[in-house]
Amino acid sequence: MSSLTSPHLPTARASWARISLAVLVGVPAVTCRVGGFAPSPLVSAIIYGAAIVGASLLLAWAAEAAEHDMSGGLAIALLAFVAVLPEYAVDAYFAYRGGHDPTYRSYAAANMTGSNRLLLGIGWPLVVLIALSRWRRAKPGEVRPRALPLEPSARVELGALLLASLVIVIAPLTGQIYLVLGLLLFGLYALYLRRHGSADIVEPELIGTPALIGGLPTRQRRSAVGAMFLVAAGLVLTAAAPFANALVATGESLGIDRFLLVQWVAPLASEAPEFIVAVLFALRGSSGKAMGTLLSSKVNQWMLLVGGLPLMYAIGGGGLIGLPLDARQSAEVTLTLAQTALGVMLLLPLRIPRWAAALLLCLFLSQFLITAGSARYELSVVYVALALVAAYVNRRYLPATLAALGTGRRSRP
Predict the structure, then answer these.
(1) What is the CATH number of the domain that holds 256?
(2) Mean pLDDT value across the chain
(3) 158: closest CA among 294, 295, 291, 300?
């Protein structure tokens, strides 16, 4: 239990100095945006990248301290929602522009599929790699797990991803992300939040800066946590688009295809907050929280991001039916679905072995080596085949996972 007298707690002055520094590194980014200054792409990347790092630190500290007032799963879900805000902003812009400018339609789907596949293909293995490196430095006699364990609440995320995937499969089959489909995904996300909100609050064991915030009186603690979330959200929304634009501009100057830049470089920039938060958790030994952050971010992207595309497309003048997908976009969505299926099936036992992380990473990287027109579907077949094998091996966990969004008592992992 954390308190202001904990031996692990640094001095209050040092902790508040860290919080102040995290806010101050975002000041140049805010100054540039408000003042309309446009530095060179390299300088812009440094300025706005620093703001994203500062926002990520605020998010990590606030999310841990928030566990005093809400379940850990709900705190992580709130963290993930704020961390994914830049991805929403970028993709919402593409979808809105696509409603009245057909050249932008493909960018919306490209950005969405790229961000989802980066999260699962790079983020998950990265956390496992960091956790394994920490275990290698364990003291003699300590047990070194063969797999990274997940929090029991992660089954809610896995169940949400399974249900959302069953809904999204309609998109590549029909060549359309329907507005009704988007509204259904919004409903599933509300159910997901409700499930975490009904979980019991467990007194967290905090160290460092989060312990200082968590040890404050209730009213002051909630005010501090709320302020940190708001400041972090402001910095993320301020810095994400210019950071992505700076990277895209650099890529275009090198002659790289804009579709690929939108699909991979821009999402890499907008994914930075949740990647940094997950790495911070993993470096501190909170691997369960690290994976929980990335899982919740995946739920956010797979429900709110996909669901928001047809809505923004309609607001932009594209009509009320939905966002149309061409052949290339349908192939990208199919591959993203297949990757999601494999990722969920591998995590059904609530642990991710090193071989599974290596498999996800290698499959993700293979798409850049095979560039033929049919390569996306061929790789999708590989993902689906492996997902079916994993589903059979882990079949005893499927009923509890599919029922995870129910209102009853959560099943044991």
Answers:
(1) 1.20.1420.30
(2) 81
(3) 295
